[in-house]
């Protein structure tokens, strides 16, 4: 039961921290765009989730001008935005006491989620423009949030699982008895 509580605490904290990481990631996109001379704004977006059509909301940094952003600038921005946010969370992760297992697991899960975002955000324009591949599947909320949920579940489970816990035993252990001897 204690392992389940540890996992639930870490996973719940990871989910609560996710909007902070996501907002930081999008603000970092604005920082990178500004540093590269591109005017941009932060938008609240609405997606429809799967066949249920349930609306979910997200944040998105978008260039404001009518001119297309050059591919190298777009790829650089798409990678740096989430990686800078991940770096900020990694600094926080490194500063937390080792005994704060739930907090460390939650932060690590969010750092890994941001690395995932960096990968798919860089892959999208490269696949579309360079590879001439329709990469719209990378824009699906089921993939974006589903993968993040999976990353959080696996990371928090692995971080809160104790290797010294109960193990499957193939043979009964006899306590108090030494090595069996042949007395025949």
Task: Report the strand count.
Answer: 2
**Overall SS class:** mainly alpha
Q: What form results from the Cα inertia axes? A: globular
The biggest sheet, with number of strands, parallel, antiparallel or mixed sense and barrel status, is:
2 strands, antiparallel
Mean pLDDT: 87
Kindly report the spatial arrangement of strands forming the biggest sheet. 1-2
Which regions are unreliable across 5 or more consecutive residues at pLDDT < 50?
Answer: 165-169
Name the beta content range: 5-15%
Q: Report, as a whole number of angstroms, the end-to-end distance.
A: 46 Å
Can you tell me the number of structural domains? Answer: 1
Q: Which range best describes the helical content: under 10%, 10-25%, 25-40%, 40-55%, 55-70% or over 70%?
A: 55-70%
What's the structural blueprint in terms of helices and strands?
Layout lengths: L1 H34 L4 E10 L4 E10 L7 H25 L5 H30 L10 H20 L24
Antiparallel strand pairs: 1-2
Overview of the structural elements:
With 184 residues, this protein is mainly alpha-helical. The protein has one domain. It has helices at 2-35, 71-95, 101-130, 141-160; strands at residues 40-49, 54-63. A two-stranded antiparallel sheet has the order 1-2. Helix 1 crosses helix 2. The N and C termini lie far apart (46 Å). Mean pLDDT is 87; it is low at 165-169.
